[in-house]
Design a protein that fits this description.
- Helix 5 crosses helix 10 (163-182).
- By secondary structure, the protein is mainly α.
- It contains 16 helices and no strands.
- It has helices spanning 2-6, 11-36, 40-46, 54-71, 74-86, 92-105, 107-114, 119-141, 143-156, 163-182, 186-193, 200-205, 218-244, 254-275, 282-311, 321-334.
- The chain is 74% helix and 0% strand.
Length: 346
Amino acid sequence: MIVRLVSASNARRAGIGQAIAGFGAFFLGIGALQDGFAGLAPRIAALELDPAAWWTIAGFVVLGMALTVVTQSSSAAIAIALTASGGGGVPLELAAAAVVGTNIGTTSTAVFAAMGATSPAKRVATAHIAFNVLTGAVGLALLPFLLGASVFVTGLVGMGNDSSTSLAAFHTIFNCIGVAVIWPLTPRLIAMLSRFYVSLEEEIGRPAHLDATLAEVPALALRGLVLETVRMAGLAFDLARRRLDPGEGGAGDPERQQAGLALLGQTIRDFIGRLGAGPLPDDVVAALPDLVRTVQHLDDLAAVAAELAREGPAPHAMPGANWDELRAAVDESLSLRIGDGGGSAF
């Protein structure tokens, strides 16, 4: 903190001082927690628990989870387990079960952080929970084998009799195995999470008629692009009508709808770019520029409508038949039903 105080004019040195102070405070906190829970190990040792009983292992998993939730730090909870194991108060098997519990309990931090967060943040928190729960399940299922591997590894470095080192090795090994297990499941996990916590922008921006497999058949890809562009046109017309007529009904925040439209337009452009990278029939080549221009016009339509809405209602500086005809033409254009197959097309 002295470095932080005397280096106020130098942001880099001040930041280094603050980082060192943060590490110091972190370890002071762990020390305080270890001192506070120091009396727990003798009490557990006095119970003479069977380390091989499933209910004992389950109880220490719950204990590890509870310690992590209370302290909101898996590092602190693991430090407590290391201290209890190193002092001989808790057998290595039960300390390892508590470490597995800390891994599961640390998901509480993600749950608290995701409250009121954005949809992507909630999906990340859910992925974190899935990874830790799966890793914990694997760690419990392979507990005897992982403990044997941990003792073997610590024995290679001449510390086989140190239970704290073996426990630290166990924590590292079972997390690495968790990564190896989740790795091949990642695509399916991403596909599943993409259906959760969908925001309005993502719902609009997610294509309904485009698929990566369509790019292999240009005729089908062109049909999908046309349908997606028609869908975007319907959404853009509805949004513009709501912008220009405050009394027009409709659900959802217009700003978020416009963000979703921008995302959808970029998705269509990206698909056209991938499609244009290979050989295409002449009719597809001729149609793609029109689709690009259409998407650009729809983006412009949404942007201009938003600008007019921000400026407020136009002053009636041009009363008369011409103004009324112009207004009627705009209303008629924006009233076209596009993209649902139930009305007019353009």
